[in-house]
Amino acid sequence: MELLFVYGTLRSEFDNPWAAMLREQAELVGSAVTAGSIFRIAHYPGYRPDPPGEVHGEVYRLRDAEATLRVLDEYEGDEYERVLIDVGWVYQYRTQPPESARILSGDFCRL
Description:
Elements (H helix, E strand, L loop, with lengths): L1 E5 L10 H9 E10 L1 E4 L4 E4 L5 E9 L2 H12 L3 E6 L2 E6 L18
């Protein structure tokens, strides 16, 4: 089974079809923190490995990783790429946003 780190609208605090699908198809392992930074892109955040910082989120254990990740790849779209980091898969924003968009708390749910 594979792990997925979520830091934005897929977290358990959110009530949207994709977050609900993730909760149905995966097991919430718990809260987690990883290195990197998140940025406000629009009404959602984007993860980047730099500048150094902490990103707060949750880890899910995927029951059917291939099927779940295929759906989430479509949801995340071309702006994001799925990369493997220390806590599992994460959706990384493809371009570096300006520093002024950085969420300094590292936690999208607690701005």
